[in-house]
Specification:
The chain is mainly β. The chain has one helix and eight strands, in the order E-E-H-E-E-E-E-E-E.
């Protein structure tokens, strides 16, 4: 019988190592099962094949009988923890500390009426973040795709895909 590792009642034979497979999660598990009442008010037989009796008053889905060992060994559990979905990655992206780009202009100093002014940023327009999402290391690259310059005069906004 497997004992509880948290309370220190385990023996070394309870925990075994499994071969490592690149890109897969393989763990040694002891699989146990307990019969449940089916829709037709019967229950699956016990792990050892004995029939499971269903007491009156139990409903479908109620547990019946005792837990029994079904199997043990090294199992590929990769599918139990799938990689993060695009929506999950986007939720993490929304919490990242994206910098405000510093605005520059030429000629330097106060602008002169009637002369062209060049707006630009020399701040990094791409930031790379590595985040841990449920044990998966995810690299998020945030790149500015549009720049909007607010000139403060009647020309309004200037929008560009170029930082300068």
């Amino acid at each position: 019988m497997i004992r509880d590792e948290a309370i220190g009642a385990c023996s070394a034979s309870d925990f075994r190592t499994c071969p490592e497979v690149p890109g897969r999660v393989i763990r040694y598990l002891v699989l146990e099962q307990q019969p449940l009442v089916r829709e037709d008010l019967t229950a699956a037989p016990m792990a050892d094949g004995r029939p499971t009796l269903v007491a009156p008053g139990l409903r479908p889905g109620d547990p019946v009988g005792v837990w029994g060992r079904a199997d043990q060994g090294c199992f590929d559990i990769t599918a139990l923890n799938p990689p993060p979905s695009p929506d999950e990655v986007f939720r993490y992206f929304q919490t990242l500390p994206l910098p405000q780009l510093t605005t520059q202009h030429q000629p330097p100093g106060d602008g002169l009426t009637g002369l062209p002014v060049i707006f630009y940023t020399d701040s990094p327009t791409t930031q790379t973040f590595t985040v841990d999402i449920r044990g998966f290391q995810v690299t998020i690259e945030a790149t500015a795709q549009q720049f909007t310059w607010h000139t403060g005069d009647t020309t309004g906004q200037i929008t560009s895909t170029d930082p300068g």
